Amino acid sequence: MNDTPRDPRALNAYRHGLTGQIVILTPADQAAYNQHCQGIHQSLAPEGALEIGLAQSIADDRWRLQRACALDNSSFAIGISGPDKFITEHPEVGTALAQAAAWAADARNLNLLTLYEGRIQRRVEKNLQILHQLQEQRRAALKQAVEEAALLAQLAEDEGEPYLIERDFPREALPPQFDFSLAEIGRLVAHNRRLARAKLHPILLRRAA
Q: Considering all CA atoms of the chain, what is the largest pairwise distance in Å, rounded to the nearest integer?
């Protein structure tokens, strides 16, 4: 049995809860990465495999940008943490000179890091644009489906027939690329119709006047 204490910097392999992919990180970084990804997904609110995949790509690239920024800061920290090379009357001036020397000593890698950040940022912006376009298309398709279902519901009501969304609005009538549920459409139809009646309610009209 090996009683050697485990190096706290050791890497562990984790299966990401959102993507199922294997990610190799330290336990502390894994917790931060998971929290980061969950926050991005909550902010972007993706639906469907394609939107979720784009949101995860954005989350991963945003994570890389944060890591690049940390590397940039660490490079300067290493440069100013060594023995004092510049003796001045003002500590701020000495720090600034040490940072300049650190940049000059590692200018090539820092320039590559800047190039790396720029490419990642452009990829984030491109994926965000694609994601927003997909979400707009999905919302427009859902709005159209709700409007069509509302017309069918009104027709059934005018003809004195019950409106059964499963019968009158079959799944085949929905756009195949979007995963809309009939229950979701039915709830939106009921909400919109009730809201329309509320706007015409005499009491509310008098209050508005």
A: 93
Give 63's contacts (C-beta < 8 A, 6+ positions apart): 33, 36, 37
pTM of the model: 0.68
What is the overall mean pLDDT for the chain?
Answer: 77
Q: How far apart are CA 131 and CA 55, in angstroms?
A: 7
- What are the phi and psi torsion angles at 13 (to 5°)? -100, 130
Residue the block writes with tokens 């969950």: 38
Cα 64 to chain centroid, rounded = 14
Strand partners, 29: none
Consecutive H or E run containing 54: helix 48-81
Write out the E strands in the chain. Answer: 12-15, 22-25
From the list 96, 75, 71, 74, the residue with the least C-alpha distance to 85 is 96
Between residues 56 and 97, the one the model is more confident about: 56
Say whether 25 sits in a helix, a strand or coil.
strand
Give the closest residue to 182 by CA, choosing from 172, 195, 197. Answer: 172
Q: How confident is the model at residue 157 (pLDDT cuts 50, 70, 90)?
A: confident
Q: Which residues pair with 15 in a beta bridge?
A: 22
Burial of 46 by CB count in 10 Å (0-12 exposed, 13-18 middle, 19+ buried)? buried
